[in-house]
Amino acid sequence: MASEPFQITQDESFKSVIFDSLPYYDNDLEQHPILKEKVEEELAREAKTPQGLHPHVPPSPKLFANNPLLEAELARVEARQPLPPLDTTRYQLPGPTSTPASEEEWRAALNNARAQLEHQRLRHSNLALLQQYGPNAWRIHNFLLDGTAKNLEKTLEDLRNMTTELNRDRKNFQTRIGTQLTSLETRWTELISSILQIEIANAALETEMARLDKTEAELAAGM
């Protein structure tokens, strides 16, 4: 009924074909199955939908561009490569390998032992801090995550309600406009039919007048 395509220009470089239709009201495909077959054939001949993104969609941001370590780790995860093995030598206390050992070798072994002792001291301090403040920090973190989740759920529910309301408004609008279009189309058909009837009646009158004129002329000639 109201499905004639027309073109509109949104800007100087972009043109789009918009089909003016009322999908909530038009039921031509249901009333005429042959039209549905033709539509399916036309869709089958059309080019497939491109797999890429729309040109107006911005490119994906590059993650961790300012952090080479995280960028390398992300590349490793995307490549599904295993984690590199841990270097356990830094946790060992090897002594000098030569006999007798030199002072430099003993100094290096002693510095390594001091580094290991400092590392263990820091681990002990971190574990003590975690034991003291970790549970509360974790509870606060979970509380914040729960609040964020509730806000997202509420936003999602609001969007769903807005979508439902929009679809309801569109359906009501299209139903109202569709009824008006049907009424106007019916009126147009009636007017066209009336005009055709008048033209047929005029043609019949002209034929009758021509017959009467001919009869009058014959009578005048007989007198």
Q: What is the general shape?
A: rod-shaped
Could you tell me how far the N terminus lies from the C terminus, measured between alpha carbons in angstroms? 63 Å
Low-confidence region ranges? 1-15
Question: Measured on Cα atoms, how large is the radius of gyration?
Answer: 43 Å
Instruction: Give me the strand/helix succession.
Output: EEHHHH
Helix/strand structural class = mainly alpha
* Lateral arrangement of strands in the main beta sheet: 1-2
Number of strands: 2
Q: Beta-sheet strand percentage?
A: 5-15%
Approximate helicity band: 55-70%
Mean pLDDT: 85
- Helix count, DSSP H or I runs of 4 or more residues: 4
Which sheet architecture does the biggest sheet show? 2 strands, antiparallel
Question: What do these coordinates show?
Answer:
Belongs to the SPF27 family. This is Breast carcinoma amplified sequence 2. It comes from Ceriporiopsis subvermispora (strain B). Residues 149-218 form a coiled coil. Among the domains are: 1-45, no CATH class; 103-190. The protein is built from four helices and two strands, in the order E-E-H-H-H-H. It has helices spanning 28-31, 33-45, 68-78, 103-222, and strands at 5-11, 14-19.
Key descriptive features of the protein:
223 residues; mainly alpha; two-stranded antiparallel ribbon; disordered N terminus; SPF27
Short description:
The chain has helices spanning 28-31, 33-45, 68-78, 103-222; strands at 5-11, 14-19. It is mainly α.
